[in-house]
């Protein structure tokens, strides 16, 4: 019971304090904030429904009063019956009406017979007793039928909105008055409507064209494509009558909008307010709730820190020790003497660190060796634990160089993916051959490869082993060349090797070490490789004498090689013969 008590106490402490602090501080704030946001949103939405709806109805009423005022003014012109002679009084009444009602652009007085008796215009010539038959005019027909007729909205010269209003008298003898109304004057009514700071109203006719807007340039342009979002906004409101709906205005802003119809003219007044402004109080409440949550979380963190200080000491030691071991400090040991599970955990980590140190040393040794030794040689050096063979010394070595003929031209014309694919196959083939002959690969450089035989681990008859390895290299790469030439890759493969004394050993810095050879024999092998044609293996005299008759060799004419004062005797190995 005593042994397991600390575990139960540790678990219960963290669980109890975490859940208690979270439930006591954070959860109530979340519930309060969520409920405030939920109910606040619905309350604000209901308030906005009422506000926007009231503003829309008020605007509709004002525009209706505007239209009815014009209608009433026109009604005074159809009080008296017409006589056969010209009536000067009617002309004066018409001129007075146009002064009193600036929205009236032109006025036509039609007698009972449907003839035009008087025409007064702000933009055209006045006519008295014109006599044109207007009995078939839709405005005259509509007024005689319904007493008042409102025509559709038209755009004068494609910009200014106009509307025809016709009013008939109580008796047919008094005739009909037809007036053209400039609807720009409704702008005064619409521009005076404000909801909040940036809310505004606009008017659409029955087809959805913009009749009035605070930005009068939108109306004057009469661009139905540009005002299409407003028509879509009206359609969304019609789909949910009696409610304010969210939509997008011309500027692309998300707005909340409500609508009211204008009787008689079949227009719609839409009042809109940006959603960001409409729900500003809700956003402010959410910010307040967020601040409370942050404050509550900070308070909970402080309480947890204060309450757990006496028990987190061992945890911090374990955490620091694990971090050091994870960073590679395997000699670090965690010193805990608590007599409980913490101490046992620390002991296990110390044992693990010791095992990791041994494992890392072994892995690093193998990694270093495998960079330039054949796998078999690397395993041998690691197994014996003696890497003194890698130290610098003077030995007799065979240096082998090989590279692809025509690779520079090939890399200049081919795609990078093709070049990398060819090099990948090429390196794989060479590495298999080098590993099979237990030679030492010192470097890859582009398409060139340098290999050492008899270093760092000595082997019997290194010259024979080197020439057999070179022959296997030619066989493997020539097989690849057959496939590459079928793809129009004009490449070849040459090998050069030389035997002689060289200084071999590790060279480089602490961060990067390589095993290489330095000496005249290295330069000679490199020059022989550069001189070799496709399928050739060129050998110097020393290596040829060491090989003797065990591999058929052909003595070639001495060659002048760069860096050598005298022509160098050269031999060529016959691939596949006597091997």
TrEMBL record:
GO cellular component: plasma membrane
InterPro entries: A/G_cyclase, Adenylyl/Guanylyl_Cyclase_3/4, dCache_1, HAMP_dom, Nucleotide_cyclase
Domain of life from the UniProt record: Bacteria
Pfam families (UniProt xref): dCache_1 (PF02743), Guanylate_cyc (PF00211), HAMP (PF00672)
Compartment(s) of residence: Cell membrane
Membrane topology: Multi-pass membrane protein
GO molecular function, one term: adenylate cyclase activity
Domain annotation Guanylate cyclase: ranges: 398-529
Signal peptide interval: none
Boundaries of every HAMP domain copy: 309-361
GO biological process, one term: cAMP biosynthetic process
Entry protein name: Adenylate cyclase, class 3
């Amino acid at each position: 019971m005593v042994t397991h008590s600390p575990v139960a106490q540790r678990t219960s402490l963290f669980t109890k304090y975490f859940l208690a602090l979270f439930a006591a501080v954070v959860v109530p704030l979340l519930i309060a904030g969520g409920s405030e946001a939920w109910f606040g949103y619905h309350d604000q939405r209901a308030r906005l429904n009422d506000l926007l709806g009231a503003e829309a109805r008020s605007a509709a009423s004002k525009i209706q009063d505007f239209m009815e005022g014009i209608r009433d003014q026109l009604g005074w012109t159809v009080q008296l019956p017409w006589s056969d002679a010209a009536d000067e009084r009617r002309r004066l009444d018409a001129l007075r009406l146009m002064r009193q009602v600036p929205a009236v652009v032109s006025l036509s007085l039609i007698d009972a017979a449907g003839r035009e008796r008087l025409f007064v215009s702000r933009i055209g010539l006045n006519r008295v007793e014109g006599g044109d038959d207007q009995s078939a005019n839709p405005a005259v027909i509509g007024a005689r039928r319904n007493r008042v007729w409102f025509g559709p909205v038209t755009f004068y010269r494609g910009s200014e909105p106009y509307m025809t209003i016709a009013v008939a008298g109580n008796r047919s003898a008094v005739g009909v008055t037809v007036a053209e109304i400039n609807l720009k004057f409704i702008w005064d009514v619409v521009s005076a409507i404000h909801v909040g700071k940036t809310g505004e109203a606009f008017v659409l006719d029955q087809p959805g064209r913009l009749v009035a807007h605070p930005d009068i340039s939108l109306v004057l342009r009469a661009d139905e494509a540009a005002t299409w979002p407003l028509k879509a906004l009206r359609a969304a409101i019609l789909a949910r009558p009696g409610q304010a709906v969210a939509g997008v205005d011309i500027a692309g802003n998300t707005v909340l909008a409500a609508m009211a119809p204008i009787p008689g003219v079949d227009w719609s007044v839409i009042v809109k307010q940006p959603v960001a402004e409409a729900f500003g109080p809700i956003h402010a409440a959410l910010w307040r709730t967020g601040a409370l949550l942050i404050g509550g979380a900070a308070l909970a963190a402080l309480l947890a820190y204060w309450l757990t200080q006496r028990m987190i000491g061992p945890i911090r030691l374990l955490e620091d020790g694990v971090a050091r071991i994870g960073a590679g400090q395997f000699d670090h040991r965690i010193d805990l003497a608590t007599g409980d599970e913490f101490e046992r955990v620390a002991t296990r980590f110390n044992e693990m660190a010791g095992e990791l140190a041994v494992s890392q040393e072994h892995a690093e040794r193998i990694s270093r060796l495998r960079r330039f030794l054949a796998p078999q040689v690397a395993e041998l050096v690691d197994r014996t634990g003696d890497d003194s063979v890698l130290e610098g010394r003077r030995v007799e070595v065979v240096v082998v160089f090989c590279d692809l003929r025509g690779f520079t031209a090939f890399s200049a014309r081919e795609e990078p993916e093709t070049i990398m694919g060819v090099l990948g196959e090429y390196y794989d083939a060479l590495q298999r051959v080098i590993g099979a002959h237990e030679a030492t690969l010192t470097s890859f450089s582009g398409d060139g490869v340098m290999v050492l035989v008899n270093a760092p681990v000595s082997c019997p008859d290194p010259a024979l082993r080197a020439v057999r390895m070179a022959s296997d290299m030619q066989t493997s790469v020539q097989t690849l060349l057959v496939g590459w030439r079928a793809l129009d890759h004009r490449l070849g493969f040459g090998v050069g090797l030389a035997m002689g004394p060289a200084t071999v050993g590790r060279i480089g810095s602490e961060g990067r070490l390589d095993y290489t050879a330095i000496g005249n024999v290295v330069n000679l092998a490199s020059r022989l490789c550069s001189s070799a044609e496709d399928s050739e293996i060129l050998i110097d005299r020393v290596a040829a004498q060491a090989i003797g008759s065990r591999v058929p060799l052909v003595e070639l004419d001495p060659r002048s090689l760069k860096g050598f004062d005298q022509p160098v005797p050269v031999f060529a190995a016959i691939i596949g013969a006597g091997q």
